[in-house]
Amino acid sequence: EIVAQSLVCTHLGCTIAESATGFDCPCHGSQFDEDGNVLTGPAQKPLKTLRVELLEDGTLRLHTKG
After folding, report:
1. From the DSSP assignment, how many helices (H) and strands (E) are in the chain?
2. Which of 15, 19, 28, 29 is catalytic?
3. Residues 6+ apart with CB under 8 A from 6
4. What is the pTM of this model?
5. 63 an active-site residue?
6. Pick the catalytic residue: 9, 11, 25, 32?
7. Looking at beta carbons, which pairs linking 46-51 to residues 24 or more positions away fall under 8 Å?
8. Is 28 a residue of the active site?
9. Nearest to 38 by CA among 30, 48, 50
């Protein structure tokens, strides 16, 4: 199964970066685990999970909205 997560921090929208424990936000210090759950705030919500669709030709389609 393929899972995709948004790299936009749920606190104020900064772009997060991969870290040894998951993902870190360079703007205000929020940390997320590898599943996108909040480890430390100020973020209160987990990272958004994005829908991934496998097309008949083997192409992956990533749905970034809705």
Report:
1. 0, 7
2. 28
3. 47, 48, 49, 50, 64
4. 0.83
5. no
6. 11
7. 46/10, 47/5, 47/6, 47/7, 47/8, 47/9, 47/10, 47/16, 47/23, 48/5, 48/6, 48/8, 48/10, 49/3, 49/4, 49/5, 49/6, 50/4, 50/5, 50/6, 51/4
8. yes
9. 30
* pLDDT value for 66: 57
∠ CA 29-33-36, nearest 5°, is 95
DSSP code, position 4: E
The tens-digit pLDDT sequence of the chain (66 residues) is: 788 999 999 999 999 999 999 999 999 999 999 999 999 999 999 999 999 999 999 999 999 875
Residue 9, pLDDT score: 97
